[in-house]
Amino acid sequence: MDDMSLDDAPQWEKRPHSPYPDSGGESQPVSDAEAKGESTRLLSPQPETKDSGKASGTTRKFCNFPKSIPFIIGNEFCERFNYYGLRAVMVLYLTRYLKFSEDSGTALFHAFTMLAYFTPLFGAIIADSFWGKFKTILILSLVYASGGAFVSLTAMPIDDPDAKKWVPFIGFLLVALGTGGIKPCVAAFGGDQFDLSDPSQISMREKFFSIFYFSINAGSLISIFLTPILRGDVQCFDNDCYPLAFGVPAVLMVIATIIFVAGYPLYRHVPLKGNVVVQIFRCFVVGDDKN
Predict the structure, then answer these.
(1) What are the φ and ψ backbone dihedral angles of 65, each rounded to 5 degrees?
(2) What is the 3-state secondary structure (H, E, C) of 84-95?
(3) Long-range contacts of 132-136 (CB under 8 A, 24+ apart)
(4) What is the mean pLDDT of residues 90-107?
(5) Burial class of 143 by CB neighbour count within 10 A (0 to 12, 13 to 18, 19+)
(6) Biggest alpha carbon distance in the chain?
(7) Are 115 and 253 a contacting pair, CB within 8 Å?
(8) The whole model's pTM is what?
(9) Is residue 50 over pLDDT 80?
(10) Which residue has the higher pLDDT, 148 or 63?
C-alpha cells in the first residue's frame, strides 16, 4: 500500500496537535473535573478594571467624594452650632437679663424664628437670579457672623438701660437674615459639586445629603447641650455668662465662613438659571404692561 501523507489521510485518522510542547503531539486526557472547571472559567464574567476615581470635570478624593465636600460639611456643622446655640439661651437672655416679661420674651423669640424661616425665600431668589450660590453664602455668612459677634458684645454690661435692652436686637436681626439667607443655598451648592454625567456620582450625591443632614443634627445637638452649660456654669460680670454663651457660637460662625472660603479653588460652579418666583413675577409685569 502506498504511503499516504497526513493531508491525504481520512479526516478521522488525523490526530489533533496538543497545545503542550512536551506532549509529543499526542492529545492529553482531561478529567471531567478539569473540563468542568475550564468551562466555568470561560463562561464566568471576568472582573472589570476599576477607573481612576476621576469624573469628567471633577477630581474626586476624600472617600470618592469631590474634594470640595468636606468644606461644605464643615461649614454647615459650624453654622448650625451657631444658630441653635443662640436659640438655646435666647429666651432666658430676654427675660432674665434684659428683663422682658415672659410673654414679651416668648413673642420676640418666635418673631426671630419666624424671620429666620421666612428669609430663605429671598436668599433663594438672590442666589438663583443675581449673585449665585457661592457669593450669596459668602456675603450672608459675613452678615451672620457679624450679627453673632454683635449679640455677644452687647451682652456685656451697658450703662444705658434703653441701649442695653434694644441694641442687641440689631444682632438678632443680622443673625436671622444670615441664617435664613444661606439656608436654601448650602445644600443646593453641595449638590452642584457632583457631575451627574458620571453614574457613580449619583449614588455619591445621595450619600452626601445623608452626611450633610447628619452634620446639621450633630451641630444642633452639641450646641443645645453645650451653650446652656457655658451660660450657667461660668460666671462673668457677676452674672450668668451670656457673652460667652453667645460668643462661642459666634466664633464657630467665623470658623464656618473661613472653612467655606478655603474651599473656593475646589468648588464646581453652576451657571445661573433664574428663580421661578422672579420668572412668574416678570410674567405678571409683562402681562400688565400689555394690558
Answers:
(1) -85, 155
(2) HHHHHHHHHHHH
(3) 132/269, 132/272, 133/185, 133/188, 133/189, 133/192, 133/269, 133/270, 134/189, 134/264, 134/267, 134/269, 136/181, 136/182, 136/185
(4) 94
(5) middle
(6) 133
(7) no
(8) 0.75
(9) no
(10) 148
The full length of the chain comes to: 291
Helix (H, G, I), strand (E, B) or coil at 197: coil
Query: What does each C-alpha distance from 88 to 41, 93, 222 come to in angstroms?
Result: 64, 10, 11
Helix residue ranges per DSSP H, 93-192: 102-118, 120-126, 133-154, 161-166, 168-192
For residue 34, name the pLDDT band (cuts at 50, 70, 90). Answer: low
B/e letters for 105-125, b = 16+ CB within 10 Å, e = fewer, are: beebbeebeebbeebbeebbb
> What Å distances lie between residue 33 and 56, 65, 266, CA to CA?
47, 46, 56
Query: Rounded to whole angstroms, how far apart are CA atoms 100 and 108?
Result: 9
